[in-house]
Design brief:
alpha/beta; 7-stranded mixed beta sheet; single chain; 469 residues
């Protein structure tokens, strides 16, 4: 295939689409509905900016540090807008902004290290690293800023440029973030584009893109991979999970109940690596259900901008309908709601925090990723049964084991088929660690130095140790 040659910039289309407030279900603003012509402009500018951006690591590091400062300074503007379009409590929006700034600082201090190969030959062989070119970052609506930075921070640190597309459900805070970062980054290094489909498909398959990084559903991930394959672009896909928490028979239920509850219900359950099913020893099952249900009944559900809110709405009507459908199916098949079990009778996309018991193990609320404030608790007799059930899924993102004997818990944890496992906590990630899934939870690795090198290509230079005739 001939190399991509960016052409002249065509005219912009100028159409717009509405952005809805999840707490009311009503439109409160608009965003540009950009299309193929504007995408071509963004990729062309990314190519032009790449020529100089890739050549000066010190300047890149300084720009990323300045970007982190700019993000923190813009927190009072970014956080309310993020809450307004995503739905999460304001405190969680501020936490997301802090994580975005922290990731920029972490990658500003990261640089690829050349490596010498010593294999006994009279040749000095050195592995160096080169950037790939423009990277496409396609970001979902659950953590718009945090997941955006998880993609663009390592890509930019590696010397690539980025064209970033947020979800059409949450475009506004991302656009504002782009405006904030424009003061710290050269033009064309990071470009935000917003729009409805087929914009994402066009970006993934654009001939000027050399790496596509995507977070979202398995079906869309497959489509993204197929689009990227047309130009043989590298792919990194994070496609969700159905994380299991296994409670051992020595677990202190009351001690871990709060941690377990929020591991499942934070961000209204809209977390790829949230606890989405709990396996409890039969003799402790009822106590676990009771403890989780008590917290579900007590949590304050409301609009994210309300100071007392602990749990906001689901982000969109489609996701609310999915959660309702899975819950109704489980109840129809014999499950019992120890708490919740229904949407809330108010404007917006609110669903009661729900704890389910007596759930058939083949119910979709157990086997699929419900991605909402619904948690099934299932009993088991032997630990082997719990491990087998935890692994009996097409997903493999994360998992956790909870118990007093840490050595025993770690031994059980080592049997889980997932990319990350936690003991007595869940869904806590260091910026320095790799993040990856197995099975249908994804392709490639993000996070830490693995995320940096995933945005680079090795370049090997062989030099003789002495002149040869």
């Amino acid at each position: 295939m001939a190399p991509y040659q960016p052409g002249p910039a065509p005219a912009a289309a100028g159409e717009r689409f509405s952005v809805l407030d999840p707490a009311t279900g009503e439109a409160f603003d608009e965003a540009p509905d950009q299309r193929a012509q504007e995408l071509d402009v963004a990729v062309r500018r990314a190519h032009e900016a790449w020529r100089s951006w890739r050549s000066d690591p010190a300047a890149r590091a300084a720009a990323l540090l300045a970007s982190a400062d700019a993000v923190e300074a813009a927190g009072p503007e970014l956080a309310p807008l993020l809450t307004r379009e995503q739905g999460k409590p304001l405190t969680e929006s501020y936490a997301e902004i802090a994580r975005t700034a922290a990731r920029l600082r972490w990658f500003a201090a990261s640089a690829p290290e050349p490596r010498t190969i010593q294999d006994g030959r009279a040749v000095h062989s050195e592995i160096r690293w080169r950037s790939l070119g423009p990277v496409a970052a396609i970001v979902p609506w659950n953590f718009p800023l945090q997941l955006a930075s998880a993609k663009f921070a390592p890509a930019l640190a590696a010397g690539n440029t980025v064209v970033l597309k947020p979800s059409p459900f949450t475009p506004l805070a991302t656009r504002l973030l782009g405006s904030v970062l424009s003061a710290a980054l050269p033009e064309g290094v990071l470009t935000m584009i917003t729009g409805r489909e087929p914009l994402g498909a066009l970006l993934a398959s654009h001939p000027g893109i050399r790496h596509v990084t995507f977070t979202g559903s398995v079906p869309t991930g497959r489509a993204v991979a197929a689009g990227a394959a047309s130009g043989l672009a590298r792919i990194t896909l994070e496609l969700g999970g159905n994380d299991a928490a296994i409670l051992l028979d020595d677990v202190d239920v009351e001690r871990i109940a709060d941690r377990l509850f929020w591991a499942a219900f934070r961000n209204c359950g809209q977390v790829c690596m949230a606890v989405k099913r709990v396996y409890a020893p039969a003799r402790l099952h009822d106590r676990v259900v009771e403890a989780l249900a008590a917290r579900a009944k007590a949590v304050v559900v409301g609009a994210g901008l309300d100071p007392g809110t602990e749990l906001g709405p689901l982000n969109n009507a489609t996701q609310l309908a999915r959660v309702e459908r899975y819950t109704a199916r489980a109840l129809a098949d014999g499950a019992r709601a120890a708490a919740g079990g229904h949407r809330l009778d108010r404007p917006g996309w609110f669903h009661a925090p729900t704890v389910l018991t007596d759930v058939p193990p083949d119910s979709p609320v157990v086997t699929e990723e419900q991605f909402g404030p619904v948690l099934p608790v299932l009993p088991y007799g032997r630990v082997d049964e719990a491990v087998d059930a935890a692994n009996a899924t097409r997903f493999g993102l994360g998992g956790s084991v909870w118990g007093t004997d840490l050595d025993r818990a770690e031994a059980v944890a080592g049997r889980l088929e997932c990319g990350t496992v936690w003991i007595n906590h869940h869904a806590e990630l260091s910026l320095a660690q790799p993040f990856a899934g197995v099975k249908e939870s994804g392709v490639g690795v993000a996070g830490g130095p693995w995320g940096l090198y995933g945005n680079l290509s090795p370049f090997v230079v062989h030099r003789p140790l002495e002149d040869r005739p």
